[in-house]
């Protein structure tokens, strides 16, 4: 995976505030929910907060339960997750608890912010990311350089808003607390801006004492070549569908999902689905959608294997079916090998027809799994 799995975690009042404006941090969660948060912290490789939260709350950001820390160590992990913060200015209090508790710390900042932070002698690895703070570069560094597979983001609202708007959040864990703040000066969880248009998927709701935990997953595909966390999840679904294909020695097992720009699933399919022994996954999915559906030009086709460019079993290959349907974005995990057709280039055909083709190589192994017997 090029990025860690990004889990946003926050508690809000009934009127959508993260805090009040008083000098003390407003406690929104219940004791049992604080313990759940501690458990989530213990499960991740790194925890991130913004500089605003360090200034407002001066948190330590630890795994508090000794048995959870012991379990991490027993599993060969550091006792505490890596602590990560972001600041454009680099203007941070070197005496804040964040720097002096727990395990390793890293500050991602701008070139200017790094100059200032280094001058302050912060007890952290200071990483400049250029003139501006680039979240994609930050996540890549966490993943590639620091081996972070799961990142928990504990706010504040400025940080959560950007990660959600940029399609970089895999999951939102939101706790709703039964109280009101009512102060327009207080910080809100999400600010204005450009969010995914459609509905997120609710994957869990759980009562914890007097608060409710809701877990949501973003669903909207990226645009053009840019990849969202939801793209990866849909590709994972396509790989799950590939595993449902009736086995064959003469054709690949492939899964496909068609998703509208607002994250609505339009159809899904897989090779040899139903009573059709030669149907391809993309063909099976597209056949379930009204060709006049106005969402098709903005939709994305996820296919675990690159759509075919040539086939003997039908007049039109899948790449042409996709172009005919008007879809202009395809995400795939794996380019077609020469097993049945030499030099198949479905991606080239799609690109020549004006379609963006995005390859997610991190799913290649899963996409190949049901085809292992064909690959030698
Ligand atoms: N209820 C909850 O679950 C919860 C959780 C966390 C926080 N909170 C509350 O949230 C409030 C703080 O939220 P906040 O939105 O003010 O702050 P924040 O999101 O914690 O941090 C914002 C700061 O992070 C840096 N930053 C973020 N994105 C950046 C970018 N793209 N480029 C450069 N720098 C960037 C900037 O630091 P510089 O200013 O140094 O440039 C910015 O001022 C506090 O009241 C806290 O209590 C509540």
Q: In brief, what are we looking at here?
A:
This protein is an alpha/beta fold and 376 residues long. It is 28% helix and 20% strand.
Structural class: alpha/beta
**Rg, Cα atoms, Å:** 23 Å
Helices, by number, come to: 13
- At CATH level 2, the architecture of the largest domain is 3-Layer(aba) Sandwich
Compute the number of strand runs. 14
Overall mean pLDDT: 96
Distance between the termini: 25 Å
Fold and architecture overview:
By secondary structure, the chain is α/β, with parallel strands linked by helices. It folds into two domains: 5-217, Dihydrofolate Reductase, subunit A, CATH 3.40.430; 229-375, 3-Layer(aba) Sandwich (Cytidine Deaminase, domain 2), CATH 3.40.140.10. The chain contains 13 helices and 14 strands. Strands 5-4-3-2-6-1-7-9-8 form a nine-stranded mixed sheet. The chain has a five-stranded mixed sheet with strand order 11-10-12-13-14, with helices on both faces. β3 (82-87), α4 (97-100) and β4 (105-109) form a beta-alpha-beta unit. NADP nicotinamide-adenine-dinucleotide phosphate (NAP) binds next to β1, β2, α2, β3 and α7.
């Amino acid at each position: 995976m090029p990025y860690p799995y990004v889990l946003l975690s926050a508690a809000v009042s009934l009127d959508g505030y993260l805090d009040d404006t008083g000098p003390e941090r407003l406690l929104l969660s219940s004791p049992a929910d604080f313990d759940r948060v501690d458990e989530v912290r213990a499960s991740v490789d790194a925890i991130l907060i913004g500089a605003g939260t360090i200034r407002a709350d001066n948190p330590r950001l630890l795994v508090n339960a000794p048995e959870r820390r012991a379990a991490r160590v027993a599993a060969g992990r550091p006792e505490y997750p890596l602590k990560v913060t972001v600041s454009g200015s680099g203007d941070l209090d070197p005496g804040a608890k964040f720097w002096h508790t727990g395990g390793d710390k890293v500050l991602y900042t701008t070139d200017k912010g790094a100059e200032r932070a280094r001058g302050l002698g912060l007890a952290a690895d200071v990483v400049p990311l250029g003139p501006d703070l680039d979240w994609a570069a930050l996540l890549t560094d966490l993943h590639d350089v620091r081996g972070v597979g799961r990142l928990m983001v504990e706010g504040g609202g400025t940080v959560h808003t950007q990660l959600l708007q940029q399609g970089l959040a895999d999951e939102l864990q939101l706790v709703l607390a039964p109280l009101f703040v009512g102060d327009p000066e207080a910080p809100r969880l999400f600010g204005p801006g450009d969010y995914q248009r459609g509905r997120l998927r609710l994957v869990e709701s759980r009562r914890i004492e007097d608060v409710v935990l809701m877990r949501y997953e973003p669903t909207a595909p990226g645009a053009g070549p840019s990849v969202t966390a939801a793209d990866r999840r849909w590709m994972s679904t396509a790989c799950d569908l590939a595993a449902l294909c009736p086995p064959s020695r003469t054709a690949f097992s492939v899964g496909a999902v068609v998703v509208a720009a607002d994250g609505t699933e339009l159809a899904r399919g897989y090779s040899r689905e139903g009573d059709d022994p030669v149907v391809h996954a993309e063909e099976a999915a597209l056949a379930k959608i009204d060709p006049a559906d106005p969402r098709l030009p903005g939709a994305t086709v996820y296919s675990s294997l690159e759509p075919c460019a040539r086939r003997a079993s039908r007049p039109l290959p899948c790449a042409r079916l996709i172009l005919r349907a008007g879809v202009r974005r395809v995400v795939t995990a794996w380019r077609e090998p020469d097993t049945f057709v030499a030099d198949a280039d479905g991606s080239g055909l799609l690109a020549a027809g004006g379609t963006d083709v995005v390859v997610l190589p991190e799913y290649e192994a899963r996409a190949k799994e049901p085809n292992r017997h064909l690959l030698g």
